[in-house]
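Two proteins follow. First one:
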Amino acid sequence: MPALLIATKDDVPSIRQRAAAALFRISPEYTEVACATFLNLMKVSASLGGSEEERVALYAQADFAKLGRPAVPYLTEALRDPNKYLRQNAAATLGKIGPVGKDASKALQEALSDKEKLVCIAAASALARVDPDQAERAIAFLIKAANDQDSSVSAFIGRFLAVGALGDLGPIAKAAIPALSSLALQYDDPLARAATTALKKIEAK
């Protein structure tokens, strides 16, 4: 185990990520080390098309989510971290955990008021997944975000992510059909295409 523990502090992000995942699989006693490592890796934007650090942040989300309930307290605390990327990634990871993460519901509801739009959207998407009693509220929030008329780049990204989140929720997001249908009518627009894809997922039987 010493070698894996040392590897969680390696300079290479992917090595730290794999070491943390391996430690938890070996024994739950390494939960704290694994969670701390994942949280550190998630302090950057998560993207498959980005840098190695950004790709690893996305992989760390997936590994973190596999921890299930033991990860929830760490992720809940991370929702209040000063680092906006960590807050966003923590919310996204809770969404991947699903209903087992219901204890984070209150923190996710608070995160809907985060000063960063992308954190709010990630929190809304996660809230709909972890707490069925809050799904209606979360979906209404995502619909509003998808219709945001702010012309800034961050707002457009937020609209795109909100549309994708609604689609990923599937049939439970049927209240979004009118808004998405309207967006889908926009000619040759990436957001319109995303709305069309989301509609197909929501209307799938």
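Second one, unrelated to the first:
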Amino acid sequence: MLSMKYSYYPGCTLRNKAKDLDEYARASARALGFELEEIEDWQCCGGVYPLGTDEIATKLSSVRALNQAKEKGQDLVTICSACHHVIKRVNDDMKNVEDIRTRANNYMQLDEPYAGETTVLHYLEVLRDKLAGTPPSNTINEVGFPLAAFLVGKIAVHSHREAGDSDTGTGPAQLGVTGQAAHDDNVVEHWITPPQRWSGSAGRRR
């Protein structure tokens, strides 16, 4: 079975309105053979990318999370589309915009300057790309995949509400969920049987 570890940034929504999404993500990760290691003392990313070219303070929480992932040698994974958008754009700033990179590093006084080294992934990118070609096993095929597919449906709803079908590439349309189903709370009922209806090592429906 695979053994991978990712730095995990849950974000505020998954600590409040969408706690079940956080639980599904962690459960799917365990079933599929990778680990979400929550970033220590993470702070709100702000939810919206600051467009002011002289705005540094609101980017620092993202830089802290990114640097912590760098220090552990891990990719950073998010589920919330808003968090993913903000953190990924801040990471791009730190990699490509010298003024922002210099000012942020001067302010934070890190042991080693951060320069955008961390790879930022949405959870769906891990499922789509990192787990592609996973060797068959009873645990993965019979438990992990049904649970992961249910999680994808949950993310489709969350992504649509947080950011719409934006350039994050994780809205319902990108996942094949269209029409009224893309707007329903029970979007997963249009797509796959929820995991609580599966039981046993063979993954058979109840």
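SUMMARY FIELD: The two ends are 26 Å apart (CA to CA). Strands lie at 4-9, 34-38, 76-78, 120-122, 198-199, 204-205.
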